[in-house]
Each structure stands twice: as C-alpha cells, then as structure tokens.
Write a structure and sequence with these properties.
heterodimer; A: 279 residues; alpha/beta; 9 helices; 10 strands; B: mainly alpha; 12 helices; 79% helix
C-alpha cells in the first residue's frame, strides 16, 4: 500500500511544478470561456518553513490551497506534498495536510466540542483520545470553557475562527494551509491567531503556507514571501530581499512595483473561486 | 516540544499498517453516525414535526381502503388497510434513506463543511457508509413507530404476522436502497442547485414502478419490466407476505435472493458513480460552498 507510507524525511514539504488550474466562466458578452486561476506556478517549500503568499482577491491564492489540499484537480503541471502527488496519492496527502480558511465552516447547530469530536473521527481518533484532547486544545486557543457546548451559530466570528484553528491543531498536520485565517477578525483576535500560528510551528514542527491580505502578518510570520498576481507567482523570497529587489521601503511598495497595482485594489476579475463555473 | 511532535509523527507512521488503517476507517464511519446523532438531537423538534406530518400523510393514504368500502366497493378492509399501510411505511422509510444520503453532500455544502470532509483521510465508502448506517437505524425506528401509530389508529390486529421476517426483508432491502441512495447522493455534487430535488425524483420513480399501493400487474408492460429490477418491489412483496400471511423467511426466498443480487450490484455501482461525480466536482471546482 504505497499511498500509506509515512512522511519521507528528505522530501520537500511542497513542490509545485508548472501548476495550472482553469475554470469555465460564463459571460453574457463572450459566452463560455476558460479562465486561468493559476498559471504555471512553480514553488518549493522546505519542511518546517513558513511561506506567505500575498495576492489580491482573485489572484489564485485559494485555488493554490485547494489544489494542495486535494480539493481541486490541476489542469496542468504537478504538485507534491512531502513527496506524495496530490492527484495520484491524494489519500497520503490528506493524512498530512489540514487547512484553516477565511470561512470557519462548521455545523452551525452543533457545539464547538461536537464539531471537533466529529472532525477528529475522520482522522482515526477515538472518543478516549478526543475527550481529553479537545478541552485541552480549546483552552490553548483561548476558547472560553463555558461556551464549549453552545451552538456554533451563537459564537462570534473570532471565536469560530479559534475553533477552526483548534480543529486543524487536533489532527497534528505536518503541513498547515492557512487561507486568510485572520481576515475579518478584530485586532486582538488577529494577534491571538498569529501567536497561535507561531505556537503551531514551535510545538508541532509544522510547515505553514499562509495566504494572506495582511502584509504585516506576512512579514511577521513568514521566512519567505510570495507575490501571486492573476494566477502567476511573480516572486518568492525573504521580505527583505523582495524589498531590496524592487528598491521598496515596504512590502506594499514591493507589491506595487512587482504587479504595477496597489495591494488594496480589487481586481476586475471576480475571485476565481467565485466565478460561475459551468458543467 | 519538537521531539514530542516527532514522536507523534512516529505513531502516525505506524498508522499505515493495514489493520490500523481499517480501524481508522471504521472510526471515521462511526464519526459520521456520531455527527448525525448530534444533529438529530439538535433538530429534534423538526423530527417530531416531520413525524407528525408523515403520520397524517399515511392516514390519508390508508383511509382510502375504508373510503372504498363506504362508497359501495367490496373489499377486505383490514387487508387493504394493511396493504396500503405497508406501502406508506416503506415509502417513508425509503424517503429517509434517500434523504440522509442525498444530504450527505447537500447539507455539508450548505454548512460549508464539505471541503473539510472531502480533504479528510477517510475513504468515500466509509463516509457514505456512515450516512447509510445512520439512515438505516434512524429509518427503522421511524418506520416501526409509524407502523405502530397508524395500526393502533385503525385498530388493526396482526394475529398471523411474522414481524421478524418483515424486519429481515427490510434490512436486506436496505443494502440495495443504500446503493441507489449513493447514486442519488452524487447529484448535489454535480448540480448544487438541483441535485437534492433530483434525489426525490429518483425516490418517486423507484416506488411508482414497485407497486407501492397496488399490484405491479396493473402497470404497463415497460413499467413491469422496471419493477423487476427495483429492490422496492421485492421488499414490498416480502413484507406484505410476512405481515398479512405470516410467511416464513424460507418461503420468502424468492424475494430475498433478488434483493441480495441487486444489493451486490448497487453498492459497488453506487460507489463508482459517486467517485466519478467527485472527480468531476474537483475538476470543475464544485466542492466549494454555494448558497
């Protein structure tokens, strides 16, 4: 059972070669057409590294995360996670990866504790394992004990996001994919989440791919910063080198120099994930 | 701390042994059952309301037997009432199986959890199997309660009934229903807007050809041919024979073997269809939440 092999010690955490993903877009004027969400992206992430990917809405960040987490099939190129191909060895990849996205997605009528118990079962954790571990993890992410049994729908977005982080931590992922985990959070919750990401790396030896809008967050957490623009990876290097290369004082200036557009400008194109996809 | 993490990785590596792998799969299956227990508990008033609606709906059907006699027709009212009741109960049971399996995708898409479920290291067979196991258990409880309530309402006596044989037939038929349910569960995956409704269409089509309230002999020839490959036909026939005539399991073999064969075909076929639907959804980016 090759796909059930353990983590190879020398493999790169992420290795993408000419990775490409297209969606079919419906347009009244132009009819059906294929739009590239990712175009020939090549990148390598070493084990234990934290890499931030910066990009506007629709730049392809979420598509990259979905490809690496086996939720999308690429239209070209290849991607490997710790040596396992995301298409051919998807189950081996799924054992090593977890993800926190901008939407903290849960069964809203179920409590945080119930949602975590359910999620943990999918990773082979028994009731005896989770009954002790879940309260411990919820405490670590700063979730109030007296609200563990409330339905998720009664919780603030910040609290829901803490539960999402707890869900990811529960499965001890070797590769953690963070897709705008702090978007929409208040400053305090944002800092708490950032502290938690640092803790994940320190305690769990996790490799982190962080897709974010937040330039400060990228600079503070990541060893290397990538710029993804309209599906193309324009740069991937330490923040200082990136700023030096573009003779910029800030990451925002570097982003502007690399893309020719301001970081906060919205793209004309809809987010690739939001595009109307047709059969 | 890193040493602790590496130790955990070590135990993760041990998990690749086939026996441990199977254990993980079964824990995952139990997780789906556990989730549905949580949700049923949270939505208990919906369930009660839906049960009351099902009872009322069943009564409207079963009263037809009394109505026929009242308007001058000549029938064995108790036998006709039981025949209709069995049809209505099987309809309700099948509805629950299909609903749970179709909602495996539709509900998760609505809640936004579908991506987390599909990126978990659980095989699709166990994922859907968990929904199927819960659906069968929940459906059996609901069907038995429905049968008892309506039978008491009409004061039906079942002196010769062989309820154990009826239960066995229903459980054996559930394997086929589960397989067909997997085929309908794929519909919300490939068509987020219309998929769940198409599941109800499939349920209706299955029952209309299976003699749910009438003998299949009254159907047009082409529908009778379809009745022969519908598991509901054999389920209804066997359950009616065991409850109305007290037929033993041995004498119901002519209903059981087709159910076993249809089940043996439907499960792998349902899984294969679902897997193809999953590939399609991943190719076209349809796993993302919509609605």
């Amino acid at each position: 059972m090759k796909e059930l092999s353990p983590v190879p010690p020398d493999a790169l955490a992420v290795e993408a070669r000419d990775l490409r993903k297209e969606f079919v877009r419906k347009d009244r004027k132009r009819g059906k057409r294929r739009v590239a969400a990712l175009e020939d992206v090549t990148l390598e992430v070493s084990r234990g590294e934290c890499v931030a990917i910066l990009g506007q809405n629709g730049s392809g960040k979420s598509t990259l995360v979905r490809l690496l987490s086996t939720l999308l099939l690429p239209d070209g190129g290849s991607a490997r996670v710790f040596g396992y191909d995301v298409v051919r060895e998807d189950k081996a990849v799924r054992r090593l990866v977890n993800r926190v996205s901008v939407e903290a997605s849960f069964f809203k009528k179920m409590s945080p504790s119930e949602n975590l118990h359910y999620a943990a079962r999918f990773y082979g954790m028994t009731l005896s394992e989770t009954s002790g571990k879940i309260p411990e993890i919820l405490e670590r992410v700063g979730f109030p004990p007296d609200r563990r049994t409330e339905p998720m729908e009664n919780l603030s977005r910040g609290m829901q996001q803490k539960v999402a982080l707890a869900r990811a931590l529960l499965t001890s992922p070797v590769l953690l994919l963070l897709d705008e985990p702090t978007t929409g959070l208040d400053p305090r919750s944002k800092l708490e989440v950032q502290d938690f990401i640092r803790e994940m790396r320190a305690m769990h030896d996790s490799t982190i791919v962080l897709c974010t809008h937040d330039l400060g967050e990228a600079e503070a957490l990541a060893e290397r910063v990538g710029i993804l623009d309209r599906g193309r990876l324009l740069a991937l290097e330490p923040a200082e080198e990136l700023m030096a290369r573009f003779e910029a004082k800030t990451l925002e200036d570097a982003f502007f120099a690399a893309t020719g557009r301001g970081f906060e400008d919205e793209e004309d194109e809809m987010d690739a994930e939001e595009r109307k996809v047709l059969a | 701390m890193r040493a602790v993490a590496r130790k955990r990785r070590g135990s993760q590596a041990e998990a690749w042994h086939p026996r441990v792998y199977l254990k993980h799969e079964l824990i995952g299956l139990a997780g789906v059952v556990e989730r549905n227990v949580y949700l049923t508990r949270r939505y208990i008033y919906w369930d009660i309301a839906f049960f009351v609606w099902t009872v009322a709906n069943t009564l409207t059907i079963v009263f037809i037997a009394k109505g026929f006699e009242a308007t001058g027709g000549s029938i064995d009212v108790d036998r006709a009432t039981t025949t209709l009741l069995i049809g209505a109960v099987v309809w309700a049971y099948l509805g629950i199986i299909f609903e749970f399996l179709t909602e495996t995708v539709a509900w998760e898409r609505w809640e936004g959890t579908i991506e987390y479920t599909f990126m978990a290291p659980l095989s699709r067979a166990m994922h859907l199997g968990g929904s199927g196991v819960f659906a069968v258990l929940y459906g059996l409880v609901r069907a038995i309660l429905l049968f008892i309530v309506v039978a008491l309402f009409f004061g039906l006596a079942f002196e010769d009934a062989n309820f154990a044989a009826a239960l066995v037939i229903l459980v054996v038929a559930s394997v086929s229903f589960f397989g067909i349910g997997m085929m309908t569960a794929v519909l919300p995956l490939i068509s987020p807007e219309k998929g769940a409704q198409l599941g109800f269409v499939a349920q209706g089509m299955l029952l209309v050809v299976s003699g749910v309230y009438y003998p299949i002999e009254v159907l047009p020839g082409w529908m009778q041919w379809l009745a022969k490959i519908s598991p509901a036909t054999y389920a209804l026939d066997g359950i009616r024979a065991s409850i109305l005539d007290g037929a033993s399991l041995g004498s119901l073999w002519h209903d059981i073997w087709p159910l076993l064969i249809i089940g043996a075909v439907c499960i792998p076929l349902g899984l294969a269809i679902f897997n193809r639907g999953e590939v399609y959804a991943k190719r076209h980016g349809k796993l993302k939440r919509s609605g």
